[in-house]
Amino acid sequence: MDPEATAAGQAAPPAQPAGAPAALGDTLDGRWSVAEILSGGQAWVLVVDDLKQGIRRAIKVSFSGPLAEDAELVALFGLDPYPYVVTAFDLVEVGGSQGILLEYVPGSLAEAVRGGRPCPLALLQEICAGMAHLSQHGEFAHLDLKPSNVLISDSGTAKVADFGLAHAVRIRDGRFPAAAGGTWAYAAPEVIRLEPCDSRADIFSFGVIFYQLSTGRLPYPFELAATAGAQRAQLLDYYASPGPERRCQELYYSDQLTPTQLPTPPPSVAVGGIISDCLQDYPGRRPASFSDLAERLAAEVGIPVVSLPPVPLAEADRQRRVLVTAEALIRLRRFDEAVRSLNRLLRGPVDPELSAEARDAARSALIGAGRPDAAAALERWSI
Amino acid sequence: MFTGQPFTVPEHIEPVPGLADRVEAMYRAGRYRTAMDEVLRQLRRDPANAEAMILAATIVYVSRTATLMAAEPLTREQSASAILAPVAVQCSRCGAFWYAMGTVLPIPNMIVANPLGVQCPVCRYTLCKDCAAAASHQGAAIPCPAPGCSGTLEPAHLPTGRREVLPIDPSEIERVIVARDGPIPPTISEALPAVTTYVPLVADDAPFVIICRSDPSQMSDASAPVLARRLVDGLEHDMLLASGAWDRSTPMRVTGSEDDSDYLVIVVKLPERQPPSAFLAGLMGDHLQRIADAKFEHHGPCWAGLYSADVTGESAALLQAAASDAHQADRLATRTRILPEYVVVATGIPTLDLPAARSQFPHGYPAYVEQLNGSFRLPGYGLNFVHWISCSDGATTQLHLTFLPADQSEQALLAQDLVEPDMRRALGL
Question: Is the pTM above the cut of 0.90?
Fold first, then answer.
């Protein structure tokens, strides 16, 4: 059984990088030397060294093509850089495709879980801080929170990564967006059922991780099937049964009930109480946000809340990110969002190196949005 | 009259026939958006309607999970509607607001689990959860911070209203001007939330909204009032607002949504109404009779409504005021009003001389009609366009009428005498 089997395949390094978008030793964009090639569930990850500054970075190239990259880029660049979220820097061309240039973080929580190594519980608060940061500009759901998407830096800091399935919790076409997949072992019932979901689906996933870190096991009374499709069917059946409700009771009353829905009881009543709340079937019974969850972890389990301010960006870097995001929104045909974003950029002084590109992008976005008159007016304004 | 004051459930509730049944059916089907639209429309017409307010409070209180899963979730614009301000609970410190069930269920000794804020039962001073956490020392009870109040803050469940909402009767609004910080003006769907969050209008009221361009960086404390004045004066100059508009204007700076920039919203009240002139009403009646006698081929319900007492009465009043303005200013003056199905525009021109009258429209009369229509987002919204023009030298008055029916299968009428002869020929009139 692979707990990290996803709808799109299994997370494992390839035997050989067949089909990889670059070869070892290639130099990308005249700057990035490919040092290692990895394959995840949904993307290639190229570990690259910066020939100019000697810094190691990662470039993620989606299996699903550039639009998937764009969607993830929009999510990542919509956030201010933060110590507990992996940082995206730019788009890089990789063999005719595009990749996202990311902060390189060498380890992950998955390695600790696989190796059975004890993890410092402070990591849980760092995950909460990272996840809370995702909603800094409006609610955002990650929807693939799992140990391999929690990277661990050399200094031992947890950083939330991989926004390939993430979405803003905002009405689109009249409804809230539904989940598009996920890693079923960590997914909330509404994600498995591909129903509309919000950040409380991530709270559920956090509960699974918390249980796994506390006990070394997944919180199911059975072994998960080997493939993603079979796992989903298995979990759909499970969430249609009384088992999950009983599981929450066993977690909550771990000192009184013998576990039948869990491989092993949680290490303490306090831990069991929090995991029980996170794993509630009905999202309204889960902690409302990662900030609330962080406070409970501090008050009930004694893990202090971590809180750091976002990393400030130089104005030119901020403007570059806005422009790159807007261009991605245009490619995604989300023209109205691109127009708003570019309007914000153009309302103040724009870095001279970006000015012409920003105006061109704004005109493209306006034409895409069916506003040629506004595009023409902008042309006059630009002059 | 919409006051925005906190709602209290009256002893007697006058039901609106069928409203509760329709809304309940939609609510049960998870069609919160349509249900709320219906209730907001009702409250827009009748802000004091207690039944509609209770229904609105019930819908807006729907849980986060039910909203998430609903076939038609409530939109953020609906939840933030100024019309719901009477049932909102607002933090006295940071201005965040929410809705509490106590607004419509005033149960004595009600226990509120996990409250979103705390409130003084004496004066309703309210703090949201975050402000309360900052004010409380290790979870201790918070004495009411309001000066002179001896209360203690308890879980909040009574409405406070929202202090930033403009208490105005929608029927007293002439137009609402919207500008957005930055070089790209908003679309109407972007502009409307900035309006309806602070002004008791609904999405159907888009014809009230005039979107204007704003040069970048004009939204600072110092420059926004200057921009507001410039926009109002410009629209008055373009004859889209009645004279003296600035004195009737309330500018508001509004923070845009998280991916948008800030807005300037200017609400312009209608000028003081004048009683309809019996003389002008008589002239209008004669004019309409001549049109009726001409037996146009395609008269239908839109034309029929033009003859109604509501439309003719309002037209006569506006025309009287426009003629008076024109006489005083010795130049063209216009007044406008949006009625439920008719946009009524009245223009006074202080001359009987037709060439002189035509010259009052710098780009020609058809262009003025087009500009007016564009400003009201016509054709659309099921609105008919009526333009009465009074040409008068003080002793004699001559009327002209342009009518563009909402139903374009009905015949339109253009005041041809106001069109330059060569343009008439070009238009094939």
Answer: no
